[in-house]
Design brief:
This protein has 361 residues and is α/β, with parallel strands linked by helices. The protein contains 16 helices and seven strands. Helices cover 47% and strands 7% of the residues. Strand 1, helix 3 and strand 2 form a beta-alpha-beta unit.
Length: 361
Protein backbone atom coordinates (compact mmCIF):
# COMPACT_ATOMS: atom_id res chain seq x y z
CA UNK A 1 0.00 0.00 0.00
CA UNK A 2 1.32 3.43 -0.94
CA UNK A 3 0.59 6.52 1.12
CA UNK A 4 0.67 10.26 0.64
CA UNK A 5 4.19 11.50 1.38
CA UNK A 6 2.77 14.45 3.33
CA UNK A 7 -0.23 13.24 5.35
CA UNK A 8 0.15 9.43 5.06
CA UNK A 9 -3.31 8.97 3.50
CA UNK A 10 -3.42 5.49 1.90
CA UNK A 11 -3.82 5.41 -1.87
CA UNK A 12 -6.69 2.92 -1.46
CA UNK A 13 -8.90 5.56 0.19
CA UNK A 14 -11.51 6.73 -2.33
CA UNK A 15 -10.51 10.13 -3.69
CA UNK A 16 -6.89 9.91 -2.48
CA UNK A 17 -5.64 10.26 -6.09
CA UNK A 18 -1.89 10.32 -5.40
CA UNK A 19 0.06 12.14 -8.13
CA UNK A 20 3.46 11.14 -9.56
CA UNK A 21 5.16 12.79 -6.59
CA UNK A 22 3.12 10.77 -4.12
CA UNK A 23 1.01 13.71 -2.91
CA UNK A 24 -2.71 13.10 -2.37
CA UNK A 25 -5.54 15.19 -3.77
CA UNK A 26 -6.39 16.63 -0.35
CA UNK A 27 -2.82 17.85 0.24
CA UNK A 28 -2.51 19.24 -3.30
CA UNK A 29 -5.68 21.23 -2.81
CA UNK A 30 -5.14 22.16 0.81
CA UNK A 31 -6.12 25.79 1.35
CA UNK A 32 -4.43 27.50 4.33
CA UNK A 33 -7.41 29.87 4.47
CA UNK A 34 -9.49 26.92 5.62
CA UNK A 35 -7.38 26.86 8.77
CA UNK A 36 -8.28 30.48 9.44
CA UNK A 37 -11.98 29.74 9.02
CA UNK A 38 -11.71 26.67 11.22
CA UNK A 39 -9.80 28.66 13.84
CA UNK A 40 -12.51 31.33 13.84
CA UNK A 41 -15.13 28.64 14.35
CA UNK A 42 -13.05 27.03 17.08
CA UNK A 43 -12.84 30.35 18.91
CA UNK A 44 -16.63 30.67 18.72
CA UNK A 45 -16.95 27.23 20.24
CA UNK A 46 -14.36 28.07 22.89
CA UNK A 47 -16.27 31.18 23.94
CA UNK A 48 -19.46 29.15 24.24
CA UNK A 49 -17.67 26.43 26.19
CA UNK A 50 -16.08 28.88 28.63
CA UNK A 51 -19.46 30.53 29.21
CA UNK A 52 -21.20 27.17 29.58
CA UNK A 53 -18.72 25.80 32.10
CA UNK A 54 -18.88 28.99 34.13
CA UNK A 55 -22.68 29.07 34.17
CA UNK A 56 -22.93 25.34 34.90
CA UNK A 57 -20.61 25.37 37.90
CA UNK A 58 -22.26 25.29 41.33
CA UNK A 59 -25.64 23.73 40.60
CA UNK A 60 -26.77 20.53 42.27
CA UNK A 61 -24.54 17.61 43.24
CA UNK A 62 -22.62 17.48 39.95
CA UNK A 63 -21.87 19.99 37.21
CA UNK A 64 -21.13 17.50 34.45
CA UNK A 65 -20.97 13.86 33.44
CA UNK A 66 -17.65 13.01 31.80
CA UNK A 67 -17.46 9.93 29.61
CA UNK A 68 -14.29 8.13 30.73
CA UNK A 69 -12.99 5.35 28.47
CA UNK A 70 -9.38 5.29 29.68
CA UNK A 71 -8.05 6.71 26.43
CA UNK A 72 -5.74 9.72 26.38
CA UNK A 73 -8.42 12.26 25.46
CA UNK A 74 -10.99 11.25 28.07
CA UNK A 75 -8.28 11.22 30.77
CA UNK A 76 -7.06 14.70 29.90
CA UNK A 77 -10.63 15.99 29.61
CA UNK A 78 -11.33 14.75 33.13
CA UNK A 79 -8.20 16.49 34.42
CA UNK A 80 -9.01 19.82 32.77
CA UNK A 81 -12.62 19.78 33.95
CA UNK A 82 -11.58 19.16 37.56
CA UNK A 83 -8.34 21.12 37.86
CA UNK A 84 -8.66 23.94 35.33
CA UNK A 85 -12.39 24.62 35.70
CA UNK A 86 -13.19 23.37 39.19
CA UNK A 87 -16.17 21.31 38.03
CA UNK A 88 -17.79 18.72 40.25
CA UNK A 89 -17.85 15.82 37.84
CA UNK A 90 -19.29 12.35 37.74
CA UNK A 91 -16.95 10.18 35.71
CA UNK A 92 -18.97 7.61 33.78
CA UNK A 93 -17.58 4.41 32.27
CA UNK A 94 -19.43 1.75 30.32
CA UNK A 95 -17.66 -1.53 30.98
CA UNK A 96 -18.05 -3.10 27.55
CA UNK A 97 -14.89 -4.38 25.83
CA UNK A 98 -12.55 -1.99 27.67
CA UNK A 99 -8.99 -3.41 27.75
CA UNK A 100 -7.01 -3.94 30.96
CA UNK A 101 -4.56 -1.17 30.11
CA UNK A 102 -7.40 1.35 29.85
CA UNK A 103 -8.85 0.15 33.14
CA UNK A 104 -5.47 0.69 34.80
CA UNK A 105 -5.48 4.28 33.53
CA UNK A 106 -9.07 4.84 34.67
CA UNK A 107 -8.27 3.65 38.19
CA UNK A 108 -5.12 5.79 38.31
CA UNK A 109 -6.89 8.96 37.13
CA UNK A 110 -9.78 8.47 39.55
CA UNK A 111 -7.30 8.04 42.40
CA UNK A 112 -5.27 11.11 41.44
CA UNK A 113 -8.24 13.41 40.80
CA UNK A 114 -10.47 12.04 43.59
CA UNK A 115 -13.73 12.17 41.64
CA UNK A 116 -16.86 10.05 41.89
CA UNK A 117 -16.99 7.28 39.34
CA UNK A 118 -20.04 5.43 38.07
CA UNK A 119 -19.52 2.18 36.13
CA UNK A 120 -22.30 0.63 34.07
CA UNK A 121 -21.94 -3.00 33.05
CA UNK A 122 -24.44 -3.90 30.34
CA UNK A 123 -25.26 -7.55 29.62
CA UNK A 124 -22.35 -9.14 27.78
CA UNK A 125 -24.68 -11.33 25.74
CA UNK A 126 -26.37 -8.29 24.21
CA UNK A 127 -23.11 -6.76 22.98
CA UNK A 128 -21.89 -10.11 21.71
CA UNK A 129 -25.14 -10.59 19.80
CA UNK A 130 -24.95 -7.04 18.42
CA UNK A 131 -21.33 -7.29 17.24
CA UNK A 132 -21.91 -10.79 15.84
CA UNK A 133 -24.79 -9.57 13.70
CA UNK A 134 -23.20 -6.30 12.57
CA UNK A 135 -19.92 -7.85 11.45
CA UNK A 136 -21.82 -10.27 9.22
CA UNK A 137 -24.04 -7.48 7.91
CA UNK A 138 -21.73 -4.51 7.42
CA UNK A 139 -22.87 -1.54 5.42
CA UNK A 140 -20.78 -0.24 2.52
CA UNK A 141 -18.51 1.92 4.69
CA UNK A 142 -17.11 -1.16 6.43
CA UNK A 143 -16.79 -2.60 9.92
CA UNK A 144 -15.40 0.33 11.90
CA UNK A 145 -18.09 2.65 10.61
CA UNK A 146 -20.88 0.11 10.98
CA UNK A 147 -20.06 -0.88 14.55
CA UNK A 148 -18.95 2.57 15.72
CA UNK A 149 -22.07 4.34 14.53
CA UNK A 150 -24.33 1.76 16.12
CA UNK A 151 -22.28 1.26 19.29
CA UNK A 152 -21.45 4.94 19.96
CA UNK A 153 -25.11 6.06 20.13
CA UNK A 154 -25.64 3.36 22.76
CA UNK A 155 -23.10 4.77 25.24
CA UNK A 156 -23.89 8.37 24.29
CA UNK A 157 -27.53 7.66 25.13
CA UNK A 158 -26.49 5.98 28.38
CA UNK A 159 -24.58 9.12 29.38
CA UNK A 160 -27.55 11.34 28.51
CA UNK A 161 -29.84 9.10 30.56
CA UNK A 162 -27.56 9.22 33.61
CA UNK A 163 -27.24 13.00 33.35
CA UNK A 164 -31.00 13.48 32.98
CA UNK A 165 -31.90 11.16 35.85
CA UNK A 166 -29.42 12.84 38.20
CA UNK A 167 -30.30 16.39 37.15
CA UNK A 168 -26.85 17.04 35.68
CA UNK A 169 -27.03 19.71 32.95
CA UNK A 170 -23.99 18.75 30.90
CA UNK A 171 -22.31 15.73 29.33
CA UNK A 172 -18.69 16.14 28.20
CA UNK A 173 -17.06 13.66 25.82
CA UNK A 174 -13.40 13.31 24.80
CA UNK A 175 -13.97 13.27 21.05
CA UNK A 176 -10.99 14.60 19.13
CA UNK A 177 -11.52 16.93 16.15
CA UNK A 178 -13.13 14.91 13.37
CA UNK A 179 -14.98 12.59 15.77
CA UNK A 180 -17.75 11.78 15.27
CA UNK A 181 -18.63 12.73 11.69
CA UNK A 182 -19.82 16.31 11.18
CA UNK A 183 -23.31 15.19 10.24
CA UNK A 184 -23.76 14.21 13.88
CA UNK A 185 -21.57 16.67 15.75
CA UNK A 186 -19.22 19.56 15.10
CA UNK A 187 -19.00 20.76 18.70
CA UNK A 188 -22.16 19.48 20.37
CA UNK A 189 -25.21 17.41 19.59
CA UNK A 190 -27.97 19.68 18.36
CA UNK A 191 -31.14 20.23 20.36
CA UNK A 192 -33.08 18.55 17.56
CA UNK A 193 -30.87 15.48 17.75
CA UNK A 194 -31.28 15.13 21.52
CA UNK A 195 -34.86 16.34 21.90
CA UNK A 196 -36.61 15.11 18.75
CA UNK A 197 -34.69 12.16 17.25
CA UNK A 198 -35.01 8.44 17.89
CA UNK A 199 -31.46 7.04 17.75
CA UNK A 200 -32.52 3.44 17.17
CA UNK A 201 -30.73 2.19 14.01
CA UNK A 202 -33.42 1.31 11.44
CA UNK A 203 -31.29 -1.57 10.11
CA UNK A 204 -31.54 -3.30 13.48
CA UNK A 205 -35.33 -3.15 13.33
CA UNK A 206 -35.21 -4.55 9.81
CA UNK A 207 -33.10 -7.48 11.05
CA UNK A 208 -35.93 -8.66 13.35
CA UNK A 209 -33.37 -10.31 15.62
CA UNK A 210 -33.52 -7.80 18.43
CA UNK A 211 -36.35 -7.55 20.94
CA UNK A 212 -38.10 -4.30 21.71
CA UNK A 213 -36.42 -4.32 25.11
CA UNK A 214 -33.02 -4.51 23.40
CA UNK A 215 -33.89 -1.72 20.97
CA UNK A 216 -35.05 0.54 23.81
CA UNK A 217 -31.41 0.68 24.91
CA UNK A 218 -31.01 3.40 22.29
CA UNK A 219 -31.84 7.02 23.15
CA UNK A 220 -35.35 8.09 22.21
CA UNK A 221 -36.66 11.42 23.59
CA UNK A 222 -40.24 10.37 22.79
CA UNK A 223 -40.16 8.30 25.99
CA UNK A 224 -40.06 11.49 28.04
CA UNK A 225 -42.80 14.07 28.65
CA UNK A 226 -43.17 16.87 26.12
CA UNK A 227 -41.01 19.95 26.76
CA UNK A 228 -38.53 17.95 28.86
CA UNK A 229 -35.25 19.83 29.26
CA UNK A 230 -32.42 17.49 28.33
CA UNK A 231 -28.70 17.93 29.12
CA UNK A 232 -26.31 19.38 26.58
CA UNK A 233 -23.73 17.01 25.09
CA UNK A 234 -20.45 18.75 24.17
CA UNK A 235 -17.01 17.74 22.85
CA UNK A 236 -14.57 20.24 24.44
CA UNK A 237 -11.62 19.23 22.26
CA UNK A 238 -13.54 20.71 19.33
CA UNK A 239 -13.29 24.03 21.17
CA UNK A 240 -9.85 23.83 22.79
CA UNK A 241 -6.63 23.82 20.78
CA UNK A 242 -5.76 20.21 20.14
CA UNK A 243 -2.57 18.32 19.47
CA UNK A 244 -2.50 14.57 19.87
CA UNK A 245 1.15 14.30 20.94
CA UNK A 246 0.86 17.05 23.55
CA UNK A 247 -2.11 15.35 25.20
CA UNK A 248 -0.22 12.06 25.37
CA UNK A 249 2.73 13.83 26.98
CA UNK A 250 0.51 15.78 29.39
CA UNK A 251 -1.29 12.81 30.88
CA UNK A 252 2.05 11.09 31.51
CA UNK A 253 3.56 14.16 33.18
CA UNK A 254 0.41 14.71 35.26
CA UNK A 255 0.56 11.16 36.59
CA UNK A 256 -2.84 10.17 35.19
CA UNK A 257 -1.54 6.88 33.77
CA UNK A 258 0.56 4.18 35.44
CA UNK A 259 3.00 4.00 32.52
CA UNK A 260 3.72 6.15 29.47
CA UNK A 261 2.64 3.33 27.17
CA UNK A 262 -0.89 3.73 28.57
CA UNK A 263 -1.07 7.11 26.84
CA UNK A 264 -0.62 5.54 23.42
CA UNK A 265 -3.95 4.96 21.60
CA UNK A 266 -2.52 1.71 20.22
CA UNK A 267 -2.51 0.25 23.75
CA UNK A 268 -5.77 1.73 25.08
CA UNK A 269 -7.91 0.77 22.08
CA UNK A 270 -10.95 -1.46 22.52
CA UNK A 271 -10.02 -5.10 21.71
CA UNK A 272 -12.91 -5.47 19.28
CA UNK A 273 -11.59 -2.46 17.35
CA UNK A 274 -8.60 -4.50 16.16
CA UNK A 275 -11.02 -7.02 14.67
CA UNK A 276 -12.92 -4.18 12.98
CA UNK A 277 -9.70 -2.85 11.47
CA UNK A 278 -8.77 -6.36 10.34
CA UNK A 279 -12.14 -6.67 8.60
CA UNK A 280 -11.76 -3.30 6.86
CA UNK A 281 -8.21 -4.00 5.74
CA UNK A 282 -9.60 -7.20 4.22
CA UNK A 283 -12.72 -5.68 2.62
CA UNK A 284 -11.79 -2.05 1.93
CA UNK A 285 -8.05 -2.36 1.47
CA UNK A 286 -7.16 0.33 4.04
CA UNK A 287 -7.51 1.15 7.72
CA UNK A 288 -10.57 3.41 8.07
CA UNK A 289 -8.88 5.40 10.85
CA UNK A 290 -6.19 6.48 8.39
CA UNK A 291 -8.21 9.37 6.87
CA UNK A 292 -8.88 10.73 10.36
CA UNK A 293 -5.19 10.59 11.30
CA UNK A 294 -4.21 12.04 7.90
CA UNK A 295 -6.52 14.99 8.50
CA UNK A 296 -4.91 15.61 11.90
CA UNK A 297 -1.44 15.43 10.34
CA UNK A 298 -2.47 17.71 7.47
CA UNK A 299 -3.77 20.35 9.88
CA UNK A 300 -0.82 20.08 12.29
CA UNK A 301 -2.81 18.42 15.09
CA UNK A 302 -0.77 15.20 14.97
CA UNK A 303 2.88 14.49 14.21
CA UNK A 304 3.71 12.82 10.90
CA UNK A 305 6.94 11.46 12.37
CA UNK A 306 4.92 9.64 15.07
CA UNK A 307 2.88 7.73 12.52
CA UNK A 308 5.05 7.35 9.41
CA UNK A 309 6.35 3.97 10.61
CA UNK A 310 3.72 3.10 13.21
CA UNK A 311 0.70 3.33 10.90
CA UNK A 312 1.79 0.90 8.12
CA UNK A 313 3.42 -1.45 10.64
CA UNK A 314 0.24 -1.73 12.69
CA UNK A 315 -1.79 -2.35 9.54
CA UNK A 316 0.61 -5.09 8.44
CA UNK A 317 0.55 -6.79 11.86
CA UNK A 318 -3.26 -6.72 11.98
CA UNK A 319 -3.77 -7.83 8.39
CA UNK A 320 -1.38 -10.76 8.71
CA UNK A 321 -2.54 -11.54 12.28
CA UNK A 322 1.06 -11.58 13.45
CA UNK A 323 2.68 -11.11 16.85
CA UNK A 324 2.23 -7.74 18.41
CA UNK A 325 3.13 -4.20 19.27
CA UNK A 326 5.17 -3.89 22.43
CA UNK A 327 3.37 -6.02 24.99
CA UNK A 328 0.27 -6.22 22.80
CA UNK A 329 -0.14 -9.19 20.49
CA UNK A 330 -2.47 -7.61 17.96
CA UNK A 331 -2.81 -10.74 15.85
CA UNK A 332 -3.78 -12.71 18.93
CA UNK A 333 -6.35 -10.06 19.88
CA UNK A 334 -7.97 -10.30 16.44
CA UNK A 335 -8.15 -14.08 16.77
CA UNK A 336 -9.50 -13.89 20.34
CA UNK A 337 -12.23 -11.44 19.33
CA UNK A 338 -13.28 -13.62 16.40
CA UNK A 339 -13.49 -16.59 18.76
CA UNK A 340 -15.44 -14.53 21.35
CA UNK A 341 -17.96 -13.59 18.67
CA UNK A 342 -18.00 -17.06 17.08
CA UNK A 343 -16.96 -15.67 13.68
CA UNK A 344 -14.60 -16.74 10.94
CA UNK A 345 -12.78 -14.60 8.37
CA UNK A 346 -15.36 -15.31 5.68
CA UNK A 347 -18.16 -14.12 7.98
CA UNK A 348 -16.81 -10.55 7.88
CA UNK A 349 -18.74 -9.25 4.90
CA UNK A 350 -20.24 -6.06 3.50
CA UNK A 351 -23.77 -6.73 2.32
CA UNK A 352 -25.81 -3.67 3.31
CA UNK A 353 -26.16 -0.35 1.44
CA UNK A 354 -24.78 3.02 2.50
CA UNK A 355 -26.62 4.43 5.52
CA UNK A 356 -28.43 1.18 6.36
CA UNK A 357 -28.09 1.72 10.11
CA UNK A 358 -28.13 5.53 10.20
CA UNK A 359 -31.00 7.02 12.19
CA UNK A 360 -32.63 9.96 10.48
CA UNK A 361 -30.57 12.64 12.17
Amino acid sequence: MTRCVRCLLPSAVPGADLDKNGVCYLCRNYDPNIEQLQEAQRLNYERDLERTLKETRGGKDYDAVICLSGGKDSLYLLYRAVKDYGLRVLAFTIDANIPDVAWASIRKAIEVLQVDHLVYRPPVDFYRKLFHYLLQNQESRGAVYTISYVYAPLFEGNALTIAYEKGIPLVLAGYSPGQPEKARMEYEFSRKLISETDWTPPGLREARLFSEAELTRFWNPARYPAATQFPRYIAPFHAWKYHQGEIMQNIVELGLVPHKSNADPVFSNYPVNWLLMYSDLKNLGYNPYAPEFAALIRSGKASRSDWVVKMPLIDYIIKKRLGGWGNMRLGRIVTEQMKWLNLKRDNLIINKPFGWYDPKF
